[in-house]
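Let us practice reading a record.
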Amino acid sequence: MQPIDALICPRWTLRVEPEVVAEEGLALAIEAGRIVDVLPVGDAERRYRPRVRHERPTHALLPGLVNAHTHSPMALFRGFADDLPLEIWLREHIWPAEARWVGPELVADGTRLAIAEMLAGGITCFSDMYFHADVTGSVAAEIGMRAVLGMIVLDIPTGYAKTADEYLRKGLEIHDRFKAEPLITTAFAPHAPYSVGDATLAHVRRLADELDRPVHIHVHETAAEVAEAVASTGKRPLARLAALGLVNPGLIGVHATALTAGEIELLATAGANVVHCPRSNLKLASGLCPVADLLRAGVNVALGTDGAASNNRLDLWAELETAALLAKQVAGNAAAVPAAQALRMATINGARALGLGGEIGSLVAGKAADVICVDLSGVEHHPMLDPVSQLVYAASRHDVTDVWIAGEQLVADRALLRLDAADVCAAAERWARQLRA
C-alpha cells in the first residue's frame, strides 16, 4: 500500500471538472500538498495507507472557493460609510479615511481579519488590490493562505506612492520578493481607467507582457463612469483599454456592469475575464452585470466579494447565491445561471481568471489540495434532493467545517488553526475606536 498524508471520505464529492455533479462513495487522497487521486472509497482503502483519515459522512467535499476580487485590508472599514452612492462613498469618505489611516499596521491587521473571515467561509484563494501589498503577502504567507497580490498603480499621489513610476517600482519589488513563495503570485493592478492615464496603462501592458502577469482593473463599474470617459476622452473605457492592447486573456475586468453587445463580443473574442461582485454592486447601486449574456458569449466570469467596506462581508456563498438569483432576474429567464454554473464561477472560473486554472479550482489529480468540507446535516438541508442546488441556494459559510490549502489543514471543525480569532477581533476593535473618533 502506498503511504499518503491524508484521505478525506465525504458523503458527496464535487470535482467541478469535467462537470459539476455530486458523486457519492468517493475519497480524495492527498500527498505532499497535492491531490494524488479521487477514487471509490473501497479502492482507496486497498491502494493507500493514509497518515490521517478524515471521515465526513454528512459533508460535501469540493474545491476551495476563489475570491477573484477584494481589498482585504478594508475589512477594517466595514460599516464605515454605508448607504451612500459610489461617488460620494468613495471620494468623500473612503479616500479621505485611507489618506489618514492606511499604512503597514492597518494593512496587516486588516488582512488578518479578512483572511480569518475568508478561511472560515471556505475561501482558499483571494485576489487583492490594495496599498502595501507586501504586507498583505507576508501575512497571507505566514498563515498559509493562497493569494494573488495586486501591484497597485495610480496616477494619483497617495501616502503609499507619489507617482506612477513609484507605484510600479514598488510593485516590481513585491513581485521579486514573493517569486519563491509557493502560495503567492502577483498581478498588475491599475486601479481604473479613470484614475490611470494612457502612458501608465501602456507601461503596465509592457511589464505584464514581459513578466507574464495578469492585469486586474476596475472597469465599467457604473454607467456614469462610462459617460464621463466618453465626455473626457471620446472613448468608452473598454475601447481605450483595447486600443492599448490590454483587452486580452490576461485581463481581469472587475464589475463590468455597463456593457454593450459589442463589448461583450470584444471580451469573448479576446479571451478576457470578468469578475462579478453582485452584492457590492447592489449595495452601491452601481449597476447590473449581464452575466448570462457574458457566459453565453463564452466569457470566463468569476466571482468576487469586493471589499468589506462596500459589501460588509467577505462571503462567497452569499455572492454565488446572489449571482445566480440576480442573473435570472436580469435575463428574465429562470434558467439563466443554474446552480452548477454558479459553483463553477466560484471555483474553477475564478482560478482561470487569476491564471491559476492548472493549480486550483477543481478536484483533479496533480492539482494543489485546496479543498473544503461543507456540512449538509442541518434541518435546513433536508430533504436532500439535489446536493448541488442545496449548496448554492441553501448552504452558507457557517456550514463550512474544514479547510485545507496545499494539503495543510487551516480550519478544523469550524476552528481556525493558525489564527487566534480573539486577537484578530481585538486588533479590529482598536482600529474601530480610532475610526469612530
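A brief commentary: The chain has a mean pLDDT of 97.
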